[in-house]
Amino acid sequence: MKSAKIVGLGKYLPSNRLTNTDLEKRVETSDEWITTRTGIKERRIVSSGEAASDLAYQASLVALKRAAIAAKDLDAIIVATVTPDTQFPSTACYLQNLLGASKASCFDLSAACSGFVYGLTVAWQFIAGGFYGNVLVVGSEVLSAITDWTDRSTCVLFGDGAGAAVLTATDKGGFLSSYLGADGSASDILILPAGGSRHPASIDTVNKRMHYMKMRGNELFRIAVRVMVQAAKKALVKADLSASQVDLFIPHQANERIISAVAARMHIAEDKIYRNIVRYGNMSSASSAVALCEAWEEGKIKKDSIVLMDTFGGGLVWGSCIIKWV
Ligand code: UT7
Predict the structure, then answer these.
(1) What's the pTM value of the predicted model, to 2 decimals?
(2) What is the pLDDT of residue 230?
(3) What is the mean pLDDT of residues 107-127?
């Protein structure tokens, strides 16, 4: 059976840098606390008026150029995001218009920080099934728009950015396995309470600051480590590989301590772990997309490399995939 391979990667990070020192002036926090508890030093923040599709557009242009595929030849565009430009139309539709990808079907995918891996899996299956030839998958987030800048327990963690991947069919290598999981019973641990049909926007929801992310970080931390280990192991079993055969481990960049704990439990060596949380913080779906792109740009992914991606986020949702680079 055919598989899919990634033929182009791109990223876009807004130029505005928000450092831990900047945050010390906004809330009662310190560079020392943020660095030791999370591993984050700075994050990028959009300029006024910049939305998820704008970031996605810049990342996609790079990915398409590297793939040498024209936008008009895309069969589908999947944008993973929890910060769409609007509730509807989808951010994928805005992106299609910006790119001039008139042939592409378009939809957004809501799987929080696991959105990019969920999106890659959907695209892979579209291609493997012969339904589509070229699929663009983007993780794009403007988390600064839903961050409560008075809440020190969340505002130090998140940043804005986008990463994009172009997928096409392959007879050899490419996606070897994927595992997607979810637990809807724990949906209130990380949530954007208002703005949907449960709590439509009103003066009351705004006054109660319900349009900002709420997170019980400590609880999430423990679950994240457990399910990321489980997801990585499941993908390895499906691909008939052991952890020692992984050349590069690209975990979701939510917390440096989560990354280290998962890697230690998986017995993955330090030099095989990719990290960029220090520069960007947690960008939800864009985190693993940007990490994959940067790892490739830095020459850490070569032909035949076995890459394990492993993610976790609000929903709760988790997902992993293994790619043999071709
Ligand atoms: O991507 C989606 C998934 N997200 C995650 O997986 C996030 C997972 N969770 C985490 O990364 C960590 O739990 C956090 C970084 C959010 C928090 O770290 P923690 O070590 O779990 O800290 P904590 O929440 O237990 O808080 C410890 C202390 C508290 O003070 P007391 O009660 O001990 O006096 C907090 O009030 O740290 C305090 N605190 C802060 N202090 C300075 C919380 N936020 C801050 C802050 N600066 N920004």
Answers:
(1) 0.97
(2) 97
(3) 98
Q: What's residue 185's pLDDT?
A: 96
Atom of ligand 1 nearest to the CA of 154: 16
Tokens found for residue 231: 């997801």
Residue 143 has pLDDT above 70, yes or no: yes
CATH numbers and ranges of domains, the chain = 3-171 (3.40.47.10), 176-324 (3.40.47.10)
Which DSSP helix (H) or strand (E) runs through 65?
helix 52-67
Stated length of the chain:
326
* H-run or E-run covering 165: strand 160-170
What is the DSSP code string of 68-83?
T--GGG-SEEEEE-SS
User: Whose C-alpha lies nearest to ligand 1, atom 23?
Assistant: 218
Q: Which of 281, 294, 229 has its CA nearest to residue 254?
A: 281
Please give the distance of CA 271 from its chain centroid, rounded to a whole number: 22
Marked catalytic residue, from 252, 276, 293, 321: 252
Distance CA 315, CA 190 (A): 7
